Amino acid sequence: MPNVYKTLRVLIVDADKFSRDLIKDVLDSLGFESKKISCMWDGTEALEGLRTVKVDIVFCARNMGSIDGVDFVRTLRDPKESPAPGVPIVFCSRQLDRHLVEEIRAVGVNEVVAKPITIKAIESRVRALLEKPRPFLKITDYVGPDRRRVDNDNVPVERRAQKHDTSQAPHKTVDI
Predict the structure, then answer these.
(1) What pLDDT sits at residue 83?
(2) Rounded Cα distance, 11 and 50, in Å
(3) Residue 176 falls within a domain, yes or no?
(4) pLDDT for the residue 3
(5) Residue 89's domain is classified under what CATH number?
(6) What is the pLDDT of residues 112-146, one digit of tens each?
């Protein structure tokens, strides 16, 4: 897998320089090429930059200068406004409460990483993006990756669609 990493172009958007540098260092250690990793602190500038530079993965944070991370993802997923509505997005945040996770999932984030960042967390999210990408959906009220994670090898059988023979089922009696 690391040979594939060398071909990928990554954008990291985070107002915190330490977080940007840490994610970049982790990606470098995983085999990504440094010259293909761009770092920006401001979400509005990142959206403009995406109009001229194609990227394969975006790492973004909640705090990104002039724009909130949720609004950044919402704008990036909007096919009318975005230069790259289908790019995979990894959202990184220190505070990942249930409300935020539901909100970022609703706007189209592919993967989530809790800060502080670890090599294992970044690698597992990148592998998930590459090895098990979820279908990208464009429906009336949502544009983004399918929010359901389905392991196609272990898909449960839809039992409601099957007819069951109940003629031989034992009858249970209950004394009252």
Answers:
(1) 87
(2) 9
(3) no
(4) 81
(5) 3.40.50.2300
(6) 999 999 999 999 999 999 999 888 888 877 788 98
Please tell me the total count of domains within the chain: 1
Run of H or E residues at 67: strand 67-68
155 within some domain: no
Between β-strands 67-68 and 136-139, what pairing exists: parallel, antiparallel or unpaired? unpaired
The tokens describing 111, both together, are: 């993967």
Q: Tell me 35's DSSP state.
A: G
Query: What phi, psi does 48 have (nearest 5°)?
Result: -65, -40
- Domain region containing 10: 2-150
Alpha carbons 141 and 146: distance in angstroms, whole number: 13
Does residue 32 contact residue 44 with C-beta atoms inside 8 Å? Answer: no
pTM here is: 0.81
pLDDT in tens, 33-48: 999 999 999 999 999 9
Low-confidence ranges of the chain (pLDDT < 70): 1-2, 149-176
Would you tell me the crossing angle of helices 17-30 and 119-131 to the nearest 10 degrees?
Answer: 60
Spatial contact of 87 and 56, defined as CB atoms under 8 Å apart: yes
161 domain residue, yes or no? no
| 16 neighbors 62 (Cβ within 8 angstroms) | no
What distance in Å separates the CA atoms of residue 22 and residue 117, rounded to the nearest whole number? Answer: 8
